[in-house]
């Protein structure tokens, strides 16, 4: 089968189309803050840190962190030394008693299923069903069903045709030879990398039933001779050895910090000395004030997975603790970026 061209960009920029989808739950998160929590009225009277906010509203840390990052990126909240306070914009329009208060405007939308689910996630820290569908399970459980796995993998695959090329172009892989895409889904990122760097061979490490989807799509693109599929669960099996590049593309954001640490530690153990770790994702800035599209995307992750978007400031000390060094950061496309680190020789 002829190999698909994964090196030529489209003639138009799909950035805004990506943003529509990535920000789809952000308005619901704002609605929950205004209507269900009356968050801004409370905060206007008493600036507080994350722990105090969680204790007062009886909500949990991970989703509250996502909520506060979103509100900060929207210019509604200010974070000074870990203490959050309202901005003038929020005090004028989101605090009860102000003549410009917009609470009732948002209250008319409070019964939207995603709003109701986001409130539950805030209180329990348990992911909601994918798309807030009553007939679906949370994402990680739903992925065990072949039909959902095929549908979801196809969704991520079409996204990767564009994002994968940009990611591959941002990487200097001249000294690397073997590339491992961990939890690589359809294999689109591994295919994009070997297309841009023909001297490489690659493997996708995936568990059933996604591994079968990956094998089929890699073959359909004409990359079967360059990209293989290895079967295993990244949480229960050691990562394959013998690779000098590891990629986590849109993977870490599905998991909370303890599991992220587990995955990065497994990578450090399996990666060849001098090898390169690549984290391709949407990354918050070190202060977690934005960028706004990343903060918005983090809401959908908080809703449906155990994770969120991570900041460069959170990843770097974690990686350093595990033994990585020589960090790098490069924007790619559609508010994505690559964060890189090396294992010492």
Fold blueprint:
Elements lengths: L14 H8 L3 H11 L2 H7 L2 E2 H8 L3 H13 L3 E4 L2 E4 L1 H6 L9 H5 L5 H12 L14 H4 L3 H24 L8 E5 L5 H9 L4 E6 L3 H11 L6 E5 L13 E5 L7 H14 L5 E6 L10 H13 L7 H11 L2 E7 L5 E6 L3
Parallel strand pairs: 4-5, 4-7, 5-6, 7-8
Antiparallel strand pairs: 1-3, 2-3, 8-10, 9-10
Helix pairs in contact: 2-8, 4-5, 5-14, 10-11
What's the short story on this structure?
It contains 15 helices and ten strands.
Describe this structure in words.
- There is one protein chain.
- The protein has 345 residues and is of the alpha/beta class.
- It has 2 domains: 15-126, Orthogonal Bundle (Arc Repressor Mutant, subunit A), CATH 1.10.10.10; 142-342, Vaccinia Virus protein VP39 (Rossmann fold).
- Helices cover 45% and strands 14% of the residues.
- It has helices at 15-22, 26-36, 39-45, 50-57, 61-73, 88-93, 103-107, 113-124, 139-142, 146-169, 188-196, 210-220, 257-270, 292-304, 312-322; strands at residues 48-49, 77-80, 83-86, 178-182, 201-206, 227-231, 245-249, 276-281, 325-331, 337-342.
- The strands form 2 sheets. It has a 7-stranded mixed beta sheet, with helices on both faces. The chain has a 3-stranded antiparallel beta sheet with strand order 1-3-2.
- Helix 2 (26-36) crosses helix 8 (113-124), helix 4 crosses helix 5 and helix 10 packs parallel to helix 11 (188-196).
- It is globular.
- The two termini are 40 Å apart.
- The model has no long low-confidence stretch (mean pLDDT 95).
């Amino acid at each position: 089968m002829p190999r698909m061209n994964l090196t030529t960009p489209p003639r138009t920029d799909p950035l805004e189309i990506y943003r529509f989808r990535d920000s789809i739950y952000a308005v619901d998160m704002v609605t929950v803050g205004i209507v269900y929590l009356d968050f801004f009225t409370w905060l206007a009277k008493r600036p507080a840190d994350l722990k105090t906010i969680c204790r007062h509203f009886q909500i949990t840390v991970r989703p509250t962190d996502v909520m506060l990052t979103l509100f900060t990126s929207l210019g509604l909240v200010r974070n000074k030394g870990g203490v959050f306070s309202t901005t003038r914009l929020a005090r004028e329009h989101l605090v009860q008693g102000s003549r410009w208060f917009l609470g009732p405007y948002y209250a008319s939308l409070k019964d939207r299923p995603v709003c109701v689910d986001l409130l539950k996630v805030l209180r329990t820290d348990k992911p909601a069903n994918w798309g807030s569908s009553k007939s679906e399970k949370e994402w990680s459980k739903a992925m065990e069903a072949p039909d959902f796995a095929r549908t979801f993998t196809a969704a991520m695959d079409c996204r990767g045709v564009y994002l994968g090329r940009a990611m591959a172009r941002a990487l200097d892989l001249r000294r690397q030879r073997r590339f491992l895409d961990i939890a690589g889904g359809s294999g689109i990122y591994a295919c994009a990398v070997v297309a841009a760097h023909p001297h490489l061979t690659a493997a996708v490490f995936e568990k059933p039933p996604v591994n079968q989807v990956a094998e089929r799509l890699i073959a359909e693109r004409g990359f079967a001779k360059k990209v293989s599929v290895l079967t295993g669960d990244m949480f229960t099996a050691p990562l394959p050895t013998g690779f000098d590049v590891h990629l986590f593309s849109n993977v870490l954001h599905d998991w909370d910090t303890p599991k992220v640490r587990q995955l990065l530690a497994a990578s450090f153990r399996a990666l060849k000395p001098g090898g390169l770790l690549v984290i391709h994702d949407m990354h918050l800035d070190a202060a977690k004030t934005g960028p706004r599209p990343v903060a918005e995307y983090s809401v959908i992750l908080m809703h449906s997975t155990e994770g969120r978007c991570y900041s460069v400031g959170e990843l770097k000390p974690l990686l350093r603790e595990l033994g990585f060094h020589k960090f790098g950061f490069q924007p790619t496309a559609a508010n994505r970026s690559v964060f890189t680190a090396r294992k010492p020789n």
